[in-house]
Design a protein that fits this description.
By secondary structure, the protein is of the alpha/beta class. The protein is built from seven helices and 13 strands. α2 crosses α3 and α3 crosses α4.
């Protein structure tokens, strides 16, 4: 049986540290969890004009997270919080790639910042800095290691996410200062934190369009394993 080819978006960094030239980066567990579930991971360099070629090659797309933000102009904001850092070429590529995959009705999984980009693509807006907009907010940039849970989320019954994980409560890790805010008519919120922050979204116009604010590739719960497994299985169809 042919393994589904899963494209994973890379992070990009300026010269320094690893190389004195610009360089790409990908945490190994993104690829490991795909391999463990029967997929073939392929890293995708940021080439916005090559979307069609990538689209023909891959069966599913993971839009990864990173220490950067979606440009507020993308969701119509007229101001920009001082903490916002953008990576414009990366975001342009990820947007083009996600939109092309959804148009082709191929599975898309947005993780952390990838969930936020997916939210914007689907017509939503973002909280630019949680501590400034959410009263009594949880520590969404958790102080403990990412291999541990930072808090729980409540999963909405009847959603794709609920059908996958089979529970209404999940422990999740948390590494973000922004979050989904306003939703469009196409977005279904499938998970929330106790402070009201949106932790997961989906769009049921597509066979698999799922975004989660946490990092299921760390496999800190059985639900994380089921999310990755369901995504790979859908890509294999």
């Amino acid at each position: 049986m042919k393994k589904p080819i899963i494209g994973i978006t890379l992070d990009s960094e300026d010269p320094g540290a690893y190389s004195n030239m610009p360089w790409y980066a990908l945490r190994q567990n993104y690829a490991d969890v795909i391999t463990q579930n029967g997929g073939l991971p392929i890293a995708l360099p940021h080439e916005p004009e090559m979307t069609d070629q990538y689209l023909d090659l891959i069966d599913g797309l993971v839009v990864t997270g990173g220490a950067f933000d979606v440009d507020p102009a993308m969701f119509g904001a007229t101001s920009r919080h001082s903490t916002v850092v953008t990576k414009d070429k990366r975001t342009a590529f990820e947007r083009n790639m996600a939109e092309a995959m959804l148009k082709a009705d191929k599975p898309v999984l947005g993780i952390c910042g990838g969930q936020q980009l997916l939210h914007v693509i689907l017509g939503g807006t973002l909280i630019q800095h949680i501590p400034d907009e959410v009263e009594n907010a949880l520590a969404h940039e958790q102080p403990n290691p990412r291999t541990e849970a930072g808090h729980n989320v409540s999963v909405r019954e009847g959603t794709l996410l609920h059908r996958i994980v089979g529970t209404t409560t999940l422990p999740v890790n948390s590494a973000h200062h922004q979050a989904a805010k306003d939703v469009s008519e196409n977005i279904t919120v499938n998970a929330t934190a106790s402070d009201g922050v949106i932790e997961g979204i989906e769009d049921n116009r597509y066979r698999f369009c799922l975004g989660v604010q946490w990092h299921p590739e760390y496999l800190i719960s059985d639900g994380d394993r089921k999310i990755m497994e369901a995504f790979i299985q859908e890509a294999a169809k």
